[in-house]
Amino acid sequence: MYNDPGQPQSPNPYGQPPDYQNPYEQPQSPYPYGQPPYQQPQPYAATQYGAPPYVPPQVPGYAQAQPKKSNRTLWIVLGIIGGVLLLACGGCALVFGLIGKGVQNTVNTVSTSIDQTATAVSAEGAQVTAQAYYAAIQAQDYTTAYSYLASGLVTSSGQTLTQDLYTQAATSRDTSLGQVTNFSIAADPNDPNSITVTVTRAQGSTYTVHLKFTFTSDGWKITSYDEI
């Protein structure tokens, strides 16, 4: 090949460009040991939704997070406890119901007993007063007999029954039928405040007297009578 001495000389005598590379030649690695040096991972670039959370790389040897335990056992235990409490409350309600029924029966029994006792006391009190009243009439002690009468009584003619009027009526009875020689007391089973007296007089007459009683602050008093 002819070289013009006037042209600049090529550094490559064969006319190849200096950056020519043999296609069959392996490229030389820029790293002397064949591996790039370790580099820290770069954070993700921020986006329009904000920077993503940083997730650290997994390090071998660290334990993984334990899965969350289920509350099924706790709910089973609570259910059992609730059932036991419910049964206990039901038993308590039954027991208290039986106790309340027993107490009510006891109250009813006591109330009935009190009523019976009050009736017996009432009948006894009326009988005792009737006995004392006719004992005074038999003794012709009309002042004492009048003291067993309730205040405010009136005669059949509408007059207020005073001690004088009562004494006159009792004396007139003794004159016509004779003095009281015997008497007997009987309580009315249907009315403890009613007393029946069977009276016998000296001339042989026997009759029945009906007395009504009431209890006052001064004791048992006769509120009505049909005979002396």
Q: Report the radius of gyration as a whole number of Å.
A: 65 Å
Note the gap between the termini: 188 Å
User: Poorly predicted ranges (pLDDT <50, ≥5 residues)?
Assistant: 110-120
Side-by-side strand order of the widest sheet: 1-2-3-4
Structural class designation = alpha+beta
Number of strand segments: 4
The geometry reads as rod-shaped
In N-to-C order, the SSE pattern is: HHHEEEE
The biggest sheet, with number of strands, parallel, antiparallel or mixed sense and barrel status, is: 4 strands, antiparallel
How much helicity do the residues have? 25-40%
Q: Do you know the CATH topology of the domain at 116-225? A: Nuclear Transport Factor 2, Chain: A
Counting DSSP H or I runs of 4 or more residues, the number of helices is 3
- The CATH architecture of the domain at 116-225 comes to Roll
Strand content: 15-25%
Mean pLDDT metric: 75
CATH class of the domain at 116-225: Alpha Beta
Oligomer: single chain
What is shown here, in short?
The protein is α+β, with helices and mostly antiparallel strands. Helices cover 39% and strands 17% of the residues.
SSE order and pairing:
Layout (H helix, E strand, L loop, with lengths): L71 H67 L3 H6 L15 H15 L2 E9 L2 E11 L4 E11 L2 E7 L3
Antiparallel strand pairs: 1-2, 2-3, 3-4
Polypeptide structure, described:
The chain is α+β, with helices and mostly antiparallel strands and 228 residues long. It has a domain at 116-225: Roll (Nuclear Transport Factor 2, Chain: A), CATH 3.10.450.50. Helices cover 39% and strands 17% of the residues. It has helices at residues 72-138, 142-147, 163-177, and strands spanning 180-188, 191-201, 206-216, 219-225. It has a four-stranded antiparallel β-sheet, with helices on one face. The model is unreliable at 110-120 (pLDDT under 50).
